[in-house]
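User: I've been trying to design a sequence by hand for this structure and keep getting stuck. Would you show me what you'd pick, starting by listing the structure so we're on the same page?

Assistant: Good idea, let's start from the same input. This is the structure you sent:
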């Protein structure tokens, strides 16, 4: 019964984390369209900061805590290739999160130099990683 609760909390955490990973780059796309220092720019800065600090960071930490707990409860998974592949993709997702945090800081300091197109492409990275993770967990191809 404990395992099922941990798993449910893990999935809830992942959903919240993914929501942020999919929304923050979209905010960057819109932020690129406004003049630095304008009222709209300042509004985007607040939205981006709150999304990252209040939703994405806690959700990422919770995803890790509940995921590691599940591995500790089922250590035999560490011998399975699908888990290693999933963990690699999770690390890439975390790297994506960290890059977004850096980009948010650049926007906060009015130092963004990247065009909208960059953030439109960056917006697809978490989606592709999520697809891979879901396939590894559900299909367990190896």
């Amino acid at each position: 019964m404990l395992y099922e609760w941990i798993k449910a909390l893990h999935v809830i955490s992942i959903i919240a984390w993914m929501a942020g990973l999919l929304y923050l780059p979209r905010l960057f796309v819109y932020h690129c369209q406004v003049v630095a220092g304008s009222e709209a720019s300042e509004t985007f800065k607040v939205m981006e900061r709150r999304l990252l600090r209040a939703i994405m960071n806690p959700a990422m930490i919770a995803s890790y805590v509940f995921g590691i707990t599940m591995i500790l409860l089922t250590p035999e998974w560490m011998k399975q290739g699908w888990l290693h592949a999933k963990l690699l993709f999770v690390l890439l997702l975390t790297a994506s999160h960290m890059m977004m945090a850096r980009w948010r800081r650049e926007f906060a300091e009015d130092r963004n130099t990247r065009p909208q197109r960059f953030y439109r492409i960056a917006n697809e990275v978490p989606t592709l990683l999520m697809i891979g993770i879901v396939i590894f967990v559900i299909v367990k191809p190896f």
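That's my pick for every position. To get oriented when you compare it with your attempt: The radius of gyration is 17 Å. The helical segments are 2-32, 39-73, 81-108, 116-122, 124-139.
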